[in-house]
């Protein structure tokens, strides 16, 4: 029974949970060795996961992006998925086999241009009847830049400058069809806006003018998602985003992040409910708490294979560690802090020597092997338990302002979301904290966002 619904009680507003599904791409989440693991590029895999999410009344289906295959020691990193279909193309196809589910694509603002991205997103919004979303990201490395005509990369501050102007320019293009007076054409007896699509943007990053050839999207503008966690990224999200794809998966970290970001909204004239914070999370269900914990441990060991553990350590040590036993102690050599052996992986940026120092201390304190350390260092499942306890955990996060909802990342593709939709979603609906059905046709409706 929903809270506050007891006989005679005054109804208490219940904070509603938002859920999204992430189709895993390049990561160490997918358990490739599981017999249930399917193709990462077959359209049927995308269809299955999207339809499962829609059956569960999720807000949206989310695709990441990869603009270059990552490398390790000068070779393609063979633990990655082999191939990354272009996200907007996949979502355009999915718009024809779903009816209400939001469709969110990651599109890079460093190596694209506003006109073409705005046009593709407007097209997806029209094809889907108002269900498009754009996760705005930037690129930090020259390695990825080698795939593009401009090449190189932008300094971190310049990346956000370009992203802000890129997004602002895209909004000008979407809005270019909304102004102007209707003018009658006596010859045809119809009305038109002669200025429809006319735009001119003059700025430090983009200097473009012409006519935008895609009519205003059904949502007015696609929903904007952002994933930056730096101070500048948080400020960008507070000013521009509708959803934050956060990485804070514990109650304590989640509440701190939630409070910080929401407190930044007022300076931009925005209310707290105009920005949804949705951490990326994983889960494991079991018949009992003990069964779930055992399954979670097995899944973590499958996610971090011996080969994968060594490759991960090599990224921080910056040297070939193939001679070391992954089930033995940490390497006795010091890290090489030069260029390193990994390309295209953001986690190997920063102070690698400090990371190695902390890991040595942790391994010594707890007697961890290389593989055990990597399992510990790369996190664990966010929600583990029976369907009832996982539903309670999800509700607690949202009810206590550690999140507005979650982007769920299953460990199997494409069937990894099935058990949560079948066993946990009905319990959330029973609590009155999650919708029993969609109440509107657009993604903005699902998220409770006003049209721009």
Note down, in words, how this protein is organized.
Belongs to the NtaA/SnaA/DszA monooxygenase family. Keywords: Flavoprotein, FMN, Monooxygenase, Oxidoreductase. FMN binds at residues 106, 160, 230. It is an enzyme of class 1 (oxidoreductase). This is NtaA/DmoA family FMN-dependent monooxygenase. It contains 15 helices and 17 strands. By secondary structure, the chain is α/β, with parallel strands linked by helices. The chain folds into two domains: 18-288 and 380-447, TIM Barrel (Alpha-Beta Barrel); 305-377, no CATH class. The longest helix is centred in the middle third of the chain and has 20 residues, at 156-175. The strands form five sheets. Strands 1-2-5-6-11-12-13-17 form an eight-stranded parallel barrel, surrounded by five helices. The chain is globular. The protein starts with 17 loop residues before the first strand and ends in a 5-residue tail after the last helix. Helix 3 (114-128) packs across helix 5 (156-175) and helix 5 runs parallel beside helix 6. It has helices at residues 43-55, 87-94, 114-128, 142-145, 156-175, 231-240, 251-263, 289-303, 306-317, 352-366, 370-377, 387-399, 418-423, 425-431, 443-447; strands spanning 18-23, 60-63, 71-72, 75-76, 102-108, 132-137, 183-185, 190-192, 198-202, 207-211, 223-226, 243-246, 276-281, 283-285, 342-343, 383-385, 405-408.
């Amino acid at each position: 029974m929903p809270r506050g619904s007891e006989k005679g009680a005054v109804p208490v507003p219940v904070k509603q949970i938002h859920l999204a599904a992430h189709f895993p791409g390049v990561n160490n989440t997918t358990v490739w060795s599981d017999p249930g693991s399917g193709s990462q590029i077959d359209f049927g895999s995308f269809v299955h996961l999207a339809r499962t999410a829609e059956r569960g009344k999720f807000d949206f289906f989310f695709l990441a992006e990869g603009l270059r295959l990552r490398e390790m020691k000068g070779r393609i990193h063979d633990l990655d998925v082999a191939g990354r279909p272009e996200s907007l193309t996949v979502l355009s196809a999915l718009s024809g086999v779903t009816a209400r589910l939001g469709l969110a694509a990651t599109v890079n603002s460093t190596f694209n241009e506003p006109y073409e991205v705005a046009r593709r997103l407007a097209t997806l919004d029209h094809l889907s009847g108002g269900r498009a979303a754009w996760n705005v990201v930037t690129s930090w490395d020259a390695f990825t830049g080698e795939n593009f005509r401009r090449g190189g990369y932008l300094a971190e501050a310049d990346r956000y400058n370009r992203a802000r102007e890129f997004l602002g320019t895209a909004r000008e293009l979407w809005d270019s069809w909304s102004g102007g007076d209707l003018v009658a054409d006596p010859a045809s007896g119809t009305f038109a806006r002669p200025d429809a699509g006319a735009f001119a943007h003059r700025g430090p990053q983009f200097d473009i003018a012409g006519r935008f050839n895609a009519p205003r999207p059904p949502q007015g503008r696609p929903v904007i998602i952002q994933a930056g966690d730096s101070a500048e990224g948080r400020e960008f999200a507070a000013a521009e985003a509708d959803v934050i794809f956060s990485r804070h998966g514990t109650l304590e970290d989640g509440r701190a992040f939630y409070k910080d970001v929401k407190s930044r909204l007022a300076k931009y004239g925005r209310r707290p409910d105009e920005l949804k914070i949705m951490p990326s999370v994983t889960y494991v269900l079991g018949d009992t708490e003990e069964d779930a914990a055992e399954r979670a441990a097995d899944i973590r060991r499958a996610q971090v294979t011996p080969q994968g553990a060594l490759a991960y350590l090599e990224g921080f040590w910056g040297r070939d560690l193939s001679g070391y036993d992954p089930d033995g102690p940490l390497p006795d050599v010091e890290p090489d802090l030069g260029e390193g052996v990994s390309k295209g992986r953001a986690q190997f940026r920063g102070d690698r020597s400090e990371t190695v120092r902390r890991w040595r201390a942790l391994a010594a304190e707890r007697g961890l092997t290389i593989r055990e350390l990597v399992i510990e260092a790369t996190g664990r499942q966010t929600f583990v338990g029976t369907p009832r306890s996982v539903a309670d955990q999800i509700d607690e996060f949202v009810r206590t302002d550690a999140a507005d909802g979650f982007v769920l990342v299953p460990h199997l593709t494409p069937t990894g979301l099935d058990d949560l939709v079948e066993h946990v979603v009905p319990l959330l609906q029973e609590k009155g904290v999650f919708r029993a059905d969609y109440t509107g046709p657009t993604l903005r409706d699902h998220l409770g966002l006003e049209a721009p």
